[in-house]
C-alpha cells in the first residue's frame, strides 16, 4: 500500500492533446498471478520531451516499459503510442533498450547493427550505422566480433542499435548503468541531440541527478502506482522549502543533534538537512556557526533524490506499517 | 514476414558458418548409423601379421584337410587381386603330436610360445569330435589364443573343421568320398520381385532380383537421413533460445519482433539448416548408391514426401523445443529438457527394424500414423519395395499438419509467456498452464 499522506499530483498543467502525446496510458494495470506490478496507471509523455521514469527496484517501471513496447500485455487499461493503438507497425517507430541487455556475441558489430536496423524496417541503414559508429568512437571496432568488446563498448553498440533506425520514440531502461563518466557524457549528449532532432526520449534511471538535469518531465512509480508526475519544478513545488544544504569545515559532526532538524543526508563534504515546518533556519545557522566555519548555507527545495528517499525510503515503510 | 525471414537468415548463417556444423555434417552419419559407416571405412584396416597356429590333432584325420583349406584361403583372399597388396594375414598351421602322457604341460609350453609371440594360438582337436555321440571319448575343439573370444580365426576354424567333420562322418557311414562335393553343394534361394508387364511394350518383364540393399539398406538410409535432419536442427533450437534468454538477448529482439515472429524465424532458420544438410546427404547418398551400381533401388517417388515430411517434422519438433528452451533460465534446465523433448523423435529408432521388415503389418501401419512418428516411419515404409496405399501417407500428412499446428500454437503461447520469465523452473505444470492460458 502506498502511504495515504503521499502527495497526489494532478496531471501536468497544460497536458498536451492526444496528437501531441507520444505515449498515453489510461488506467493500465498488470498483475503476475497474485502480485500487482502496475495498478491503474495513467501516464502521458509529450512529444519531443525527455521523460524520466524513476522508482525503486521492483516498483513496476520495467513492466510499464514492456507494456508500452507490447512485449507484455496489460490486464486492463488502454495504451496508445504515437497516437495509435499498439501494433507491430508502431513498434518499428520505437527504439527500445531494455535494462538487461544482450547482444549476439559472435556477430560482428556492423553486421549486428545492420541486422537490427533491418528488424526495425530501417532504411539506408548502412550509412547511418557508420555515422553512429563514428560518432560513438567505435569505427575501429566495426568489423570485430561483439564478444571482443568491453562492457562500455557493448553498451554503446546497444544504444546505436536502439537509435539507428531513426525511431520517433526512444525508450531506454537504465541507459547509464555501468557506464564510466566519459561514456555517460557521450550517451547523454547523444540523447539530447536526438531530442533536439524531435525524438521523444523516455528513460528510467536510478541516477536522480541525471534525471534532474536531463528530464523535461519526471514520473515516479512506487509499488505499481504513480506517486510523482510533472516537471521538476512542479514536483518540488509540492514540497515546502524544508531543506538546508550545508558545507562546513568539519563535515557531518557539526550538524548532528541540531534542534529542528529531522533528517540528515550526508554527501561527505556537504550535508542536506530536512527541517521541521516550525523550525527557524536562522537559529539552525547560528548553531552550526558556533560549532564550525560555515562555507555554504542554502535554503532550498528538496532534491529529487531527497523526494525519492522520502517516498521510497525506510521511513516511508514505517509509515506504511504503522 | 520480412522480419521473420530476416531473423531466419541470421539463424541460418549463425548455424552453418560454424566449424561445428561442418564437423557435424561429417560425423553425424557415422554416429547415427551405429558405427556401420565406420566399419565400412575401417574394415580393411586389419592387422596383416601372419597367424601361425599349432594344431594338436588327436583324431589324426583333420589337420591335412585343414592345411589344404588354409592354403586355398591364403591363395585367394590374402592379397588384393588388383593391386597385389596384402590385405589379410596368412593362416599357417603346424601339426604337433599330442602329448598324451602330460597334455597340461604341453598346453602350458604352447601357451608360453603364444605369450612370447612365436605363435598366434594353438588348437586342440579331441579324439571324439568325429563321432560326438560316442560318449566313450571326449568331443571338443579347443582354441587357445590371447583374444580367443573375438578372434576372426576362431570363426574360420569352426566353419572349416565342422565342414571336414561332416565329410568324415559320411565317409565313415560308407558314402563314396567322390560324391562329397555333390552332397555338400549349397544352393542359394534367390529372392525376386514380382513379375510386371512393361508399360510401354506390354511385354512381360523379367522379375528383378530382390536385394537387401533395396529392401533394408535404402529405406533405413532414407529414414536415418530424416532422423539426422531432425537431430541436427531441432536440439540446437532449444539451446539457442535458452542462450538468448539467459544472455538477455531475447528482450532486445522482442523490442523489434513479436514473439511469434521470433519463434517462426528460428523455425524457418532450422528448416533452412535441415534443407542444407539433407541436400548434402541426399545428393551424396544418390551419388554413392549410383556409384555402387544400385541406382535402380533409389525410390525417387519417396523424395517429395521426404521433403514435405522433413519440413513439417522440423517445424513440429522445433516449435516444441523452442518453447521448452524459452522456459529454461539456466543451462541445467536445458540439459534436463533436451532428452525428453526429443523422445517423440527418438522412439522410431527403437522400432524401425520390425517396421522395415514388415512394412505392411498392422503394427507398422498404425505406428506410422501417430503424428510424431509419421515423418520417419512413413518414409521408411514408403521406401521399401512393398507398395504403401496412397491413403496412408496422405492421412499421415494430415495428422502431421494438425500436430504441427497444435505444437506451433502451444509453443507460441509458452514462448511468449516464458521467454522473459526468470527464475521460474520449467515444471510440467507450469508449461501446461502457459500453453493453455497463454
Q: What is the rounded distance between the termini of chain A?
A: 12 Å
Mean pLDDT metric of chain A: 81
Low-pLDDT segments of chain A: 1-18, 318-322
Percentage of helical residues of chain B?
A: 55-70%
Could you say how many structural domains of chain B there are in total? 2
What's the SSE pattern of chain B?
Answer: HHHEHEHEEHHEEHHHHHHHHH
Content-based structural category of chain B? mainly alpha
Strand content of chain A is 25-35%
Distance between the termini of chain B: 22 Å
CATH class of the domain at 240-300 in chain A: Alpha Beta
Name the strands of the widest sheet of chain B in spatial order: 2-1-3-4
In what order do the strands lie side by side in the largest sheet of chain A?
6-7-8-3-9-10
**Number of E-state strands of chain B:** 6
Shape of chain B: elongated
Q: Topology as H/E string of chain A?
A: EEEHEEHEHHHEHEHEEHEEEHEHH
Strand content of chain B: 5-15%
Number of strands of chain A: 14
Report the structural category of chain A.
Answer: alpha/beta
SSE topology sketch:
The complex is a heterodimer of chains A (322) and B (438).
Chain A: E1 21-32, E2 35-46, E3 50-54, H1 61-68, E4 76-81, E5 84-85, H2 88-91, E6 94-97, H3 109-119, H4 125-135, H5 151-163, E7 169-173, H6 181-196, E8 200-204, H7 208-214, E9 217-222, E10 225-230, H8 232-237, E11 243-248, E12 261-266, E13 271-275, H9 281-291, E14 294-300, H10 304-312, H11 314-321
Parallel strand pairs in A: 3-8, 3-9, 6-7, 7-8
Antiparallel strand pairs in A: 1-2, 1-4, 4-5, 9-10, 11-13, 11-14, 12-13
Chain B: H1 2-16, H2 19-32, H3 36-42, E1 51-57, H4 63-77, E2 91-95, H5 103-116, E3 121-125, E4 141-145, H6 152-172, H7 180-183, E5 196-197, E6 204-205, H8 212-246, H9 249-254, H10 259-291, H11 303-326, H12 331-357, H13 362-367, H14 374-383, H15 391-418, H16 428-437
Parallel strand pairs in B: 1-2, 1-3
Antiparallel strand pairs in B: 3-4, 5-6
Helix pairs in contact in B: 1-10, 2-8, 8-10, 8-11, 8-12, 8-14, 10-11, 11-12, 11-14, 11-15, 12-14, 14-15, 15-16
Amino acid at each position: 500500500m502506498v502511504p495515504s499522506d503521499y502527495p497526489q499530483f494532478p496531471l501536468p498543467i497544460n497536458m498536451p492533446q492526444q496528437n501531441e502525446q507520444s505515449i498515453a496510458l489510461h488506467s493500465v494495470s498488470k498483475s503476475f498471478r497474485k502480485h500487482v506490478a502496475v495498478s491503474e496507471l495513467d501516464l502521458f509523455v509529450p512529444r519531443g520531451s525527455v521523460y524520466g521514469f524513476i522508482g525503486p527496484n521492483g516498483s513496476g517501471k520495467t513492466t510499464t516499459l514492456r507494456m508500452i513496447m507490447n512485449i507484455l500485455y496489460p490486464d486492463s487499461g488502454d495504451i496508445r503510442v504515437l497516437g495509435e493503438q499498439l501494433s507491430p507497425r508502431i513498434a518499428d517507430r520505437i527504439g527500445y533498450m531494455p535494462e538487461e541487455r544482450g547482444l549476439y556475441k559472435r556477430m560482428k558489430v556492423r553486421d549486428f547493427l545492420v541486422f537490427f536496423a533491418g528488424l526495425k524496417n530501417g532504411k539506408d541503414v548502412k550509412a547511418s550505422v557508420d555515422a553512429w559508429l563514428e560518432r560513438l568512437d567505435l569505427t575501429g571496432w566495426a568489423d570485430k566480433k561483439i564478444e571482443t568488446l568491453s562492457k562500455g563498448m557493448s553498451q554503446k553498440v546497444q544504444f546505436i542499435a536502439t537509435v539507428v533506425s531513426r525511431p520517433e520514440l526512444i525508450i531506454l531502461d537504465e541507459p547509464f548503468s555501468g557506464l564510466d563518466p566519459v561514456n555517460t557524457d557521450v550517451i547523454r549528449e547523444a540523447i539530447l541531440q536526438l531530442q533536439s532532432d524531435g525524438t521523444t526520449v523516455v528513460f528510467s534511471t536510478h541516477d536522480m541527478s541525471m534525471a534532474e538535469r536531463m528530464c523535461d518531465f519526471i514520473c515516479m512509480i512506487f509499488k505499481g502506482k504513480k506517486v510523482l508526475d510533472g516537471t521538476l519544478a512542479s514536483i518540488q513545488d509540492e514540497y515546502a522549502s524544508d531543506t538546508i544544504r550545508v558545507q562546513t569545515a568539519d563535515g557531518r559532526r557539526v550538524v548532528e543533534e541540531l534542534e529542528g532538524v529531522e533528517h540528515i543526508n550526508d554527501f561527505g563534504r556537504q550535508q542536506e538537512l530536512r527541517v521541521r515546518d516550525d523550525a527557524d533556519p536562522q537559529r539552525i545557522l547560528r548553531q552550526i556557526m558556533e560549532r564550525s566555519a560555515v562555507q555554504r548555507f542554502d535554503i532550498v527545495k528538496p532534491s529529487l533524490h531527497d523526494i525519492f528517499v522520502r517516498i521510497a525510503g525506510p521511513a516511508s515503510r514505517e509509515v506504511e506499517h504503522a | 514476414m520480412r522480419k521473420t525471414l530476416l531473423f531466419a537468415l541470421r539463424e541460418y548463417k549463425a548455424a552453418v558458418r560454424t566449424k561445428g556444423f561442418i564437423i557435424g555434417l561429417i560425423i553425424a552419419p557415422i554416429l547415427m548409423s551405429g558405427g556401420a559407416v565406420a566399419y565400412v571405412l575401417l574394415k580393411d584396416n586389419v592387422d596383416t601379421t601372419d597367424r601361425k597356429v599349432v594344431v594338436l590333432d588327436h583324431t589324426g584325420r583333420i589337420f591335412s584337410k585343414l592345411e589344404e583349406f588354409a592354403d586355398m584361403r591364403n591363395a585367394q583372399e590374402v592379397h588384393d587381386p588388383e593391386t597385389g597388396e596384402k590385405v589379410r594375414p596368412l593362416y599357417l598351421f603346424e601339426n604337433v603330436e599330442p602329448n598324451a602322457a602330460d597334455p597340461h604341460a604341453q598346453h602350458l609350453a604352447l601357451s608360453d610360445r603364444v605369450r612370447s609371440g612365436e605363435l598366434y594360438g594353438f588348437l586342440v582337436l579331441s579324439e571324439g569330435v568325429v563321432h560326438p555321440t560316442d560318449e566313450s571319448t571326449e568331443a571338443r575343439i579347443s582354441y587357445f589364443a590371447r583374444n580367443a573370444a573375438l578372434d576372426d580365426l576362431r570363426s574360420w576354424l569352426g566353419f572349416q573343421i565342422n565342414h571336414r567333420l561332416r565329410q568324415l562322418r559320411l565317409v565313415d557311414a560308407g558314402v563314396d568320398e567322390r560324391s562329397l562335393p555333390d552332397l555338400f553343394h549349397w544352393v542359394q534361394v534367390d529372392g525376386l520381385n514380382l513379375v510386371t508387364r512393361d508399360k510401354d511394350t506390354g511385354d512381360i518383364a523379367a522379375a528383378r532380383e530382390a536385394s537387401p540393399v533395396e529392401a533394408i539398406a535404402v529405406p533405413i538410409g532414407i529414414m536415418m537421413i530424416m532422423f539426422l535432419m531432425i537431430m541436427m536442427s531441432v536440439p540446437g533450437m532449444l539451446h539457442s533460445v535458452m542462450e538468448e534468454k539467459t544472455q538477455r538477448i531475447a528482450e532486445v529482439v522482442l523490442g523489434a519482433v513479436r514473439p511469434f515472429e521470433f519463434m517462426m524465424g528460428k523455425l524457418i532458420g532450422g528448416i533452412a539448416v535441415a534443407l542444407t544438410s539433407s541436400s548434402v546427404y541426399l545428393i551424396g547418398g544418390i551419388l554413392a548408391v549410383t556409384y555402387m551400381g544400385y541406382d535402380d533401388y533409389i525410390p525417387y517417388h519417396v523424395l517429395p514426401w521426404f521433403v514435405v515430411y522433413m519440413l513439417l517434422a522440423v517445424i513440429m519438433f522445433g516449435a516444441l523445443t523452442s518453447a521448452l528452451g524459452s522456459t529454461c533460465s539456466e543451462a541445467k534446465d536445458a540439459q534436463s529438457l533436451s532428452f525428453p523433448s526429443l523422445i517423440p523423435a527418438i522412439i522410431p529408432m527403437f522400432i524401425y527394424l520390425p517396421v522395415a521388415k514388415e512394412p505392411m503389418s498392422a503394427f507398422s501401419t498404425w505406428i506410422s500414423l501417430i503424428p510424431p512418428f509419421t515423418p520417419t516411419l512413413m518414409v521408411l515404409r514408403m521406401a521399401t519395395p512393398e507398395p504403401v496405399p496412397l491413403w496412408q501417407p496422405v492421412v499421415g500428412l494430415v495428422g502431421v499438419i494438425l500436430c504441427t499446428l497444435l505444437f506451433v500454437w502451444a509453443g507460441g503461447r509458452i514462448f511468449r509467456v516464458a521467454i522473459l520469465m526468470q527464475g521460474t523452473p520449467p515444471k510440467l505444470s507450469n508449461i501446461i498452464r502457459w500453453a493453455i492460458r497463454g
